[in-house]
Amino acid sequence: DLALNERDFLESRSSRDASGRTPSTEEKEELRLEKKLREICALKRRQVAGEVLDKLQAEKVAKRGELFREVAELKLRRAEKELMRIFKRHSKAFQDAFWELEWQALYADDSTASSGSTQAPFGIFDETGCDGPVTVTQAATKAESRAPRWVGVPLHVQVRKAEVAAFAIEVLEGLVRLGWAAPGEAVGDLGSGKGGFGFGGTGKKVSDGVFASYGQSFGPGDIIHCEAEREEGRLRIGFAKNNEPLGVAFDAEDVWTGPLAGVVCGKGFKVQIVSAENEALGPGLPKETGLEGFIEYDQPQMAIAERDYRVGPEDSLLLWAGETLHVSSDDGEGWLFGFFLDPEDPDDGGWFPADCVRFLDEAVQAQESAFEARATASQGAVSERAQQSNCKSPLPPTQQGVATAGYPTEWEQAPLAAESATDEGPVGGLLEWLQKLSLQKYSAAATVWCTDMGAVSLQEVEESWEDFAEALALKPLERKRLAKAVQG
Question: Which residues are in the SH3 domain (predicted)?
Answer without folding.
Answer: 298-362
